[in-house]
Specification:
A six-stranded parallel β-sheet has the order 2-3-4-5-6-7. Strands 8-1-9 form a three-stranded parallel β-sheet, covered by helices on one side. The relative contact order is 0.17. Helix 1 runs parallel beside helix 3 and helix 3 crosses helix 10. The chain has a single domain, classed as TIM Barrel (Alpha-Beta Barrel), CATH 3.20.20. The chain starts with a helix and ends in a 9-residue tail after the last strand. It is an alpha/beta fold. The protein is globular, with a radius of gyration of 19 Å. The structure holds 5'-deoxyadenosine (5AD). 5'-deoxyadenosine binds next to loops.
Amino acid sequence: MKHTIDRLCSQHSLDRQEYLELLQCNDVDTLDYLRFQAQKATLERFGRDVYVRGLIEITNECRNNCLYCGIRQANKMVARYSLSQATILDCCRQGYELGFRTFVLQGGENPQMTDEWVEDTVARIHSCYPDCAITLSLGERSRQAYEAFFKAGASRYLLRHETITDSHYRRLHPTDMSLQNRIQCLRNLKEIGYQTGTGIMVGSPYQTLENVADDLKFIEEFQPQMIGIGPFIPHAQTPFAGASAGSVELTLKLISIFRLMSPSALIPSTTALASLSADGRCRGILAGANVVMPNLSPPTFRGQYSLYNNKAAFGSESAEGLRLLKEELNTINYNISTERGDYVQT
Ligand code: 5AD
């Protein structure tokens, strides 16, 4: 198995069967070796710097009914909110003062936030903070809308494909959503010129390791600039309330595999990972992640942006805890970088 890992290091590619064998492997020495190589690749490329992105959860209104997600339309227990432009700009200002140079606007697919409104919001942030990167994570929109947002100043877009297996996709989403459309959106984003992020939830209901091996092959071929992976965590007010959470260990293993597959990629140590394990964020960094996304949303709305239960929301997860985050990263000898941290191909 070490030869396979060495080949992943040197060629950044394996065949599906080899990925599957790596996913199935539980040998402690092999897993240590994988993590060691991924950590080495990260240090060579990024040193001990971890990029920070200020996450602004702009709305929890969503027209979709993804079976796993706490803000699905059918969940009538959620108090819905949408931030105004003024509030969003205020979050950016606070973030800027703290040193953030990337703002991530994430939200449900809220039809009331029209393409024109999003375009205008991006343009305003861009004119106030021309030195900052604007990342959008607002789901599926038309190619024209993505083009308009790009022209207005957004340069990155996050849209996880969730699973590349059609039959699995259909078990996680209602019939009015399609994997085909999601992949088309990702291709559009990449063609327009966005630094594009995709990814999966680890351990989502019905997911098999074969599915994950196919996700690895898909990501290897698609070559996203950003790869977001976190464990699935059940939400009590969804059809998957009784399902078990994804594995922290498998998530860490995948971070390492993705790092070796894609040495220059921006890979976050996700909030979901930090939510399942007290040292999850640091372990994500040590496995090969190089990005963290503290929350810049107004504290009054944070509880309402609940995609899953027990989301890490206090201490170092929030912007006011930036100092704590620094201290946490210092314990493993890593530092926060306030650079924009754009994707740079080596
Ligand atoms: N557990 C973990 N991640 C989730 N997401 C949505 N619901 C959950 C959940 N229950 C992830 C999806 C989505 C991203 C914004 O949040 O992968 O793309």
